[in-house]
From TrEMBL:
Domain of life per record: Bacteria
Organism in which the protein naturally occurs: Streptomyces cellostaticus
Protein name, UniProt field: DUF1697 domain-containing protein
Xref: InterPro entries: DUF1697 (IPR012545)
Gene3D superfamilies per UniProt: SP0830-like domains (3.30.70.1280)
Length: 183
């Protein structure tokens, strides 16, 4: 069996698109997945299965959520190997930074550098970003809520056609831990 993390975008934020984690766990178990757990209230679930791949599992969960809760949620599913590789490839000194300063945006497909050509990196310093494997690393010294670069990176012309969901560094590391093989 492979253990995966499901990353749900935009749920339980600002009182809308409520999706209780207990109900998400029940839904995932009902789809035949084992070892179902959730992390926080902001849309992370971990489960194990011996069928499907990341894309088919994400599509299955997206459809099940829409049928059960009546709204569509973008879902990315990633396995432990990918999540670990993303954490290990961080181009910023993660151990020296507060978790609120470092974020990873996971994408449904590799983002091309051309998508980011209109962003002037110098104009956003000391904030910085780097592209990774189906992800983007963001260093925002004042946190995500105050980040002008994060705002620029989330514009529709950059994310068009992609599912994109962002997690802080603590969550990035926790997902690596939660999806790690036991033993």
């Amino acid at each position: 069996m492979t253990t995966y993390a499901a990353l749900l975008r935009g749920i339980n934020v600002g009182g809308s698109r409520k999706l209780p984690m207990a109900e998400l766990r029940t839904l995932l178990a009902g789809l035949g997945h084992a070892g179902v757990r959730t992390h926080l209230q902001s849309g992370q679930a971990v489960f194990s299965t011996d069928r499907g791949d990341e894309e088919s599992l994400a599509a299955e969960l997206t459809q099940a959520i829409e049928e059960r809760f009546g709204f569509r949620v973008d879902v990315l599913v990633r396995d432990h190997g990918y999540l670990k590789a993303v954490a290990e490839a961080c181009p910023f000194p993660a151990a020296e930074l507060a978790a609120r300063q470092l974020h990873v945006t996971y994408f449904s497909a590799p983002p091309t550098p051309e998508r980011f050509a209109q962003i002037d990196p110098e104009a956003h310093l000391p904030e910085e970003f780097r592209l990774g494997e189906r992800c983007l690393y963001l260093y925002a010294p004042e946190g995500l809520g105050r980040s002008k670069l994060a705002e620029a990176l989330s514009r529709p012309r950059i994310t068009k056609g992609l599912i994109a969901t962002t997690r802080n560094w603590n969550t990035v590391l926790k997902l690596v831990e939660l999806t790690a093989p036991e033993g």
